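Chain X:
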Amino acid sequence: MKLHTDRVVLITGAAQGAGRAVAVTFAREGADIIACDTQDADRAAPEPDAAGDLTQTGELVWASGGRCVLCHVDVRDQGSLDRAVLRGLDTFGHIDVAVANANIMHAQPFADMDERTWQAVIDVNLSGVWRTAKAVTPHMVQRRSGVFLATGSLWPRSGQRDLSAYTSAELGLIGLMRSLALELGEYDIRVNTVLSAIARTPVSGIDVLDFLGDAEPAGRSGVPPHLLPFYQREPLSPDAIAEAVSWLASANASHVTGAELPVGAGTFFAGARPAPELG
């Protein structure tokens, strides 16, 4: 029996990285997908000759056995999220799970950062999750059933140099999700967060081992040296994040809500070294 047979899942930031992995993982487990990102126009199905990462996500979902609608969504715009939810409901009739995954990162000393950059990171990584919840949870409240999930980072637990906006948004995300769990629990809606260590995705553009600094594992990265063999053997991948999200959304986690699930082999970044170059 598949974990998510006949369920419908809305995912923001689905064009690449962890968002794409989440979409494909749910599709393999029997779900239909509403894939949302800022790339590509709305489509009911992937077109073989269409370019764009969101289209590629749609193709992978269909190949994995799920149906998929692609929606052009900017999580800074409540209207685009509301339209994606309506389109998903028109197509599939219901939405069982929402995964707020859209995320951006900017590395810069706080004193050098302008207000526009600060606001952009907060607006996507924190306010975007709030807007996603406002768009999709009224339908779940009406049905008295649903799962709302967000993805975040383990970094902010102890701070990180040159990532003040990112850290502030990620810590705010934890507070937001805990509050949503309390407010939505009476409607049988579970709310959880997956917090991951760094993985090689388009949002980071770096290799986890480059960041961990295997030449000085205990000193510069703040990672306990006994954990480095794990990363050398199997660096964190978007698929590992997606599997955690899938489990939290499943009936196997029916009594888990208001939680932050760490995915990072016990790694908690100490913020002792400057942030990596991003690209």
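Chain Y:
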Amino acid sequence: MDSTLQQYRLESVRKEFGGQQVALDGIDLKIDQGEKVALIGPSGAGKTTLFRLLNCTLRPTSGKLYIADEDIAALHGQRLRHVRRRIGSVYQQHNLVPRLQVIHNVLAGQLGRWPTLRSLWSLCKPGDVELAHSALSQVEIAEKLFERTDELSGGQQQRVAIARVLVQNPEVILADEPVSSVDPTLASTIVRLLVDISRSTRRTLLVSLHSVDLALAYFPRVVGIKQGRVAFDLSPDKINDDMLEDLYAGNFRDPGAPETRSETIEPIAYQSLG
């Protein structure tokens, strides 16, 4: 990947739900390939809606969203599925199948490339043990390859979800609140793991975080989102306490967030796999 190429370009992006609730209001944002970016802001600021735009689950109500210079509004069918496969998503809820072995959940990252019969056969006999083992080695739980997923800890399950994304081999990794359900020590470990993977593979990484400390400690670029707008887009050394206090002054509902959303949209599980 050439880090000088532009991965995302958002121009005056607005997202409404029901024609009344405004989740994003005039977002302008450019992200180059290979960049590592943290998104912070209060609950309901619009971060989840933004992530769903970036992984092509949602489309803007107005404005333009480009991924690698392709206008997402013009993409449909096979071409849209191809773009989605280039984006790997990690969620707060891992979207794993608990009763399956770890290897099956990891190799689910290949489902977007496999025909139906091969996908079904993989449930009986995993098709690429070495690939799954390699991905699990990168997240440091290779020994869990054949264990049942629901027997792992929450942190280990999050690592399985990351390994699944590595098997998908995307250009972009989007992680939406990936550590909000684990303890602070483990949270730091997982964020550092994501950053290390991005650095070593030159994949673009965008992570939405509740923890300001993690964002400032691990990311060279931090974007603050408030009321559906970009409040700041700076390196950590240029972000001061007054900016953070202003960012978190108030809490605004994000109509696109799962717990409050009444609109019907496409399921998010494996959405990026096509």
